[in-house]
């Protein structure tokens, strides 16, 4: 890594909504302006990295600094838009703290979509999507991703199964056992389904296993917490199917 590349890698990195191209002016919102100007103490002429989930990553210069609004000008593309492996995580909402951690790490591990699924034993029936969306953005900023995972509204398990898209494997982490994930044939497009902290009911497990897209898998002999199981499954799937897809 050159001295220039090393310097760029340590500059602040922000997710923005506007289009990014050479010469584009981006005015940050008040929280981002406060972060850049007051916390990071960036001044006119300093470099910032920007991404919007569509146009790759761009190196930008600070054009002006005001108390409530910092303006940047995009100069050149520092990274292409990543090619995201088509992997969803379908998971029951967990308690605050654990769900925040899961969302952050799922983004870092490269999922394309996070679909929350309500089940009979779900302990949180109204997750705060605004807070979780902010965690996804922060995780993308920190991990170098140029895409932020989609976060649609939660779905009941029954509706999820009924409207499952054709051609997408449903990798079911079943406590009762299944094929080891490393041996399961479930390339993209795929989704990993993880149950709530109390596990799926017998009826739910039977309904999932009966689905034509279901691929029951095992994550080993130990009983894993829901968040641990989700990240273990994502990591194994990415190791097998997601290599070389970042850029």
Question: What is this structure's SSE topology?
Answer:
Elements: H1 3-9, E1 13-15, E2 25-27, H2 30-39, E3 47-51, E4 57-65, E5 70-79, E6 87-91, H3 98-108, E7 113-118, H4 129-143, E8 155-156, H5 157-162, E9 169-173, E10 179-180, E11 190-194, H6 202-210, E12 214-218, H7 226-241
Parallel strand pairs: 1-3, 6-7, 6-11, 7-8, 9-11, 9-12, 10-12
Antiparallel strand pairs: 2-5, 3-4, 4-5
Helix pairs in contact: 3-4, 3-7
Which properties best describe this structure?
12 strands, Ribosomal Protein L25, Chain P, elongated, single chain, alpha/beta, Alpha/beta knot, 247 residues, 5-stranded mixed β-sheet, 7 helices
Structural notes for this entry:
- The structure is a single chain.
- The chain has 247 residues and is an alpha/beta fold.
- The chain has two domains: 3-79, Hypothetical PUA domain-like, domain 1 (Ribosomal Protein L25, Chain P); 87-241, 3-Layer(aba) Sandwich (Alpha/beta knot).
- The protein has helices at 3-9, 30-39, 98-108, 129-143, 157-162, 202-210, 226-241, and strands spanning 13-15, 25-27, 47-51, 57-65, 70-79, 87-91, 113-118, 155-156, 169-173, 179-180, 190-194, 214-218.
- Helix 3 (98-108) runs parallel beside helix 7.
- The mean pLDDT is 91.
